[in-house]
């Protein structure tokens, strides 16, 4: 039975979609329309009790939380597509380190920027708080200053080989420009961050994610 990915192409769903493509895993995208409350039906809540997206059903094995799903996919299909999780003890520890940074340093600040610039005025009917926006953007810039230092010495965050940690940045890194009103990922004062982001966003998997997103928005 083909793996089923439930959700519309939000940032979290795009993260999983990208990893499935990287690992060449056949799957079916099952739309879940949040605006219609499809995430609150008894059938969906039986799979994802918090009513969030995404979740997957892999031949009866149900899992939610995008990073957990990505880890499951990359582990199950370790010998298919690029190796995205280092097996060496020290490299894996560095991988876990940067996974925490991505989730709790990068994304939390990026979400703050996009929330003020886009989610609040467009979806919630609230005014943008410019002070909060500037604070989130400043904190994100300081985080990316650290990235710049690291990426000046190596190709990717964990070393010179691509890992899932790099790819997990893509959804909100893209949204910062598309919905966050900032070109911070293309800031020439951080040339290595620009190089890193441009390389990641040029991968065929991510191009396919964006093509699917454009198709859904038509």
From TrEMBL:
Molecular-function GO terms, alphabetical: glutathione binding; glutathione transferase activity
Keywords on record: Transferase
Pfam families: GST_C (PF00043), GST_N (PF02798)
UniProt record similarity statement: Belongs to the GST superfamily. Phi family.
Taxonomic lineage of the native organism: Eukaryota, Fungi, Dikarya, Basidiomycota, Agaricomycotina
Domain GST C-terminal, first and last residues per copy: 88-218
Residue ranges annotated for the GST N-terminal domain, each copy included: 1-81
UniProt GO BP: glutathione metabolic process; response to toxic substance
Species of origin: Panaeolus cyanescens
Spans through the membrane: none
UniProt key word Transport: no
Gene3D superfamilies xref list: 1.20.1050.10, Glutaredoxin
The EC number(s) this enzyme carries: 2.5.1.18
InterPro entries: Glutathione-S-Trfase_C-like, Glutathione-S-Trfase_C_sf, Glutathione_S-Trfase, Glutathione_S-Trfase_N, GST_C, Thioredoxin-like_sf
Annotated GO CC locations: cytoplasm
Catalyzed reactions per annotation: RX + glutathione = an S-substituted glutathione + a halide anion + H(+)
Name the UniProt record assigns to this protein: glutathione transferase
EC top class, as a word: transferase
């Amino acid at each position: 039975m083909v793996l089923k990915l439930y959700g519309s192409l939000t940032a979290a769903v795009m993260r999983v979609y990208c990893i499935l493509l990287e690992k060449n895993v056949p799957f079916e995208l099952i739309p879940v329309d949040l605006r219609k409350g499809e995430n609150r039906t008894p059938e969906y809540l039986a799979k994802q009790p918090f009513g969030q997206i995404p979740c997957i059903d892999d031949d009866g094995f149900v899992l939610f939380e995008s990073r957990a799903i990505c880890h499951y996919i990359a582990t199950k299909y370790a010998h298919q597509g690029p190796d995205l999780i280092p097996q060496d003890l020290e490299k894996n520890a560095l991988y876990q380190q940067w996974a925490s940074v991505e989730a709790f340093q990068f994304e939390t600040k990026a979400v703050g920027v996009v929330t003020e610039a886009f989610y609040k005025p467009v979806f919630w009917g609230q005014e943008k708080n410019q002070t909060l926006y500037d604070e989130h953007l400043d904190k994100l810039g300081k985080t990316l200053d650290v990235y710049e230092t690291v990426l000046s010495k190596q190709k990717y965050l964990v070393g010179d080989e691509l890992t899932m940690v790099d790819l997990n940045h893509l959804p909100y890194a893209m949204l910062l420009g598309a919905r966050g009103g900032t070109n911070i990922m293309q800031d020439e004062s951080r040339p290595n961050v620009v190089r890193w982001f441009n390389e990641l966003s040029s991968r065929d998997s991510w191009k396919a994610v964006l093509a699917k997103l454009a198709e859904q928005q038509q």
